[in-house]
Each structure stands twice: as C-alpha cells, then as structure tokens.
Amino acid sequence: MSDPAGTIQVVPSSRVPWKDVRVVFGTRGDPASCWCQYFKVTNREWNQAPAADRERALCAQVEREPAPGVVGYLDGEPVGWCGVESRTHYPRLLTATVVRGSAEPADDGSVWAVTCFVVRVGFRRRGIATALLDGAVDHARRSGARIIEAYPVDTSERKASAADLYHGSLALYERAGFRVVSRPVPGRAVVALD
C-alpha cells in the first residue's frame, strides 16, 4: 500500500527479525505486558506469568509457520502488529462471551481470528491498521483460512478507550468487506469474511 504518508508493507511475522517485533510491542503499556498472549492462555496462566515469560512465548511463536501475526512497516520502519491465526490457537477466546455469537464450530481450524492490533505511538491515523488488516486477511487466506472472524468494538454505539480498540473498530472491518454475524454484547460485534 502506498500513500502520501509513505509506503506500508505487511509481512508475516515468521519472515521478520525478532527485533522488529520487539520494537512494535515496545517496553511499556499494554502491548509490552501482553505480547499477544492474552487469548492463548487460561486466566490462571495469565495471572501467574510475568511479561518476560509472555515475551519469550511470542518470540518462539513468531518463528513457526503459519505465523501467528503480521508486522507492518512504514518506509522500512516496523510500526504495527496484527495477531491472526486459527481460532483453535486461542483457548481463552473460545470461552469469551463475544465469541458465543459466532456461527462457526469452536473446533474448526479453518476459522481464523483477528485478535489484536498494535500500532506504535507516532504512527497512528496513517492507515497502518487498515494495511495490517489487509495483510492479515492475505496471510490467513494463504495459510488455509476458510473464514476470518473478528470481534471489534462498535464505536457508533459507545465511546471506546484506547485499551478497547486493540480489537479494531467495526468500521475498520466493514470497510474491508467483513459482515456482521451477530452482536452478542452491547458495543461489540462478531464479524466474518468468507
């Protein structure tokens, strides 16, 4: 993707240096605490694991194929992350209230889920999330996804905090061609792309 703000390239995380992933997640705030592990572990495991353990877990995961996410670059600089992989890799997600609105069987490995976005401070509102979502969809399709789901915040129904927006906004997904499957909780939706 190219625009006046620069050229955005999105690459599966298995094809990028670990140092680039670390730059995106940073050293403070929610990304540096989560390391895209929240939906991959039980509540107990989450509460017992320090951030350094979560970082090590992601470091090991990004080397595997298919990659668990994509990294976005703006003019060669790492600026964003989007977590996307088979929904079966997210045990906590499968028990979340919002996912109960899915029309797909929980154990179907061909259903992939977009779980989070991280865009570095200073690079927001420049089309990074849109490019990351497009790249995540391409990566999921190339990796065998039949359906791609997400669980965004509907900012037209309620104001969302920055902490809520890691799921992405409903408008972002609708612009990318996702359709609303259900609205299992106020202010949230299940969306899918066939």
The CATH C-level name is Alpha Beta
Beta percentage is 15-25%
Terminus-to-terminus distance: 23 Å
Q: Percent range for helical residues?
A: 25-40%
Number of helices: 6
CATH topology: Aminopeptidase
What is the H level of CATH, i.e. the homologous superfamily? Gcn5-related N-acetyltransferase (GNAT)
Give a structural overview.
Pfam families: Acetyltransf_1 (PF00583). By secondary structure, this protein is α+β, with helices and mostly antiparallel strands. It has one domain: Aminopeptidase (3-Layer(aba) Sandwich), CATH 3.40.630. It is built from six helices and eight strands. It has helices at residues 18-25, 29-34, 43-48, 51-61, 128-142, 170-175; strands spanning 2-3, 6-12, 69-74, 77-86, 111-119, 147-150, 179-182, 190-193. It has an eight-stranded mixed β-sheet, sandwiched between helices. The longest helix has 15 residues, at 128-142. The relative contact order is 0.16.
What's the helix and strand layout?
Layout: E1 2-3, E2 6-12, H1 18-25, H2 29-34, H3 43-48, H4 51-61, E3 69-74, E4 77-86, E5 111-119, H5 128-142, E6 147-150, H6 170-175, E7 179-182, E8 190-193
Parallel strand pairs: 5-6
Antiparallel strand pairs: 1-2, 2-3, 3-4, 4-5, 6-8, 7-8
Which features characterize this protein?
194 residues, alpha+beta, Aminopeptidase, eight-stranded mixed sheet, 6 helices, globular
Describe, in short, the structure shown:
The protein has 194 residues and is of the alpha+beta class. The protein has helices at residues 18-25, 29-34, 43-48, 51-61, 128-142, 170-175, and strands spanning 2-3, 6-12, 69-74, 77-86, 111-119, 147-150, 179-182, 190-193.
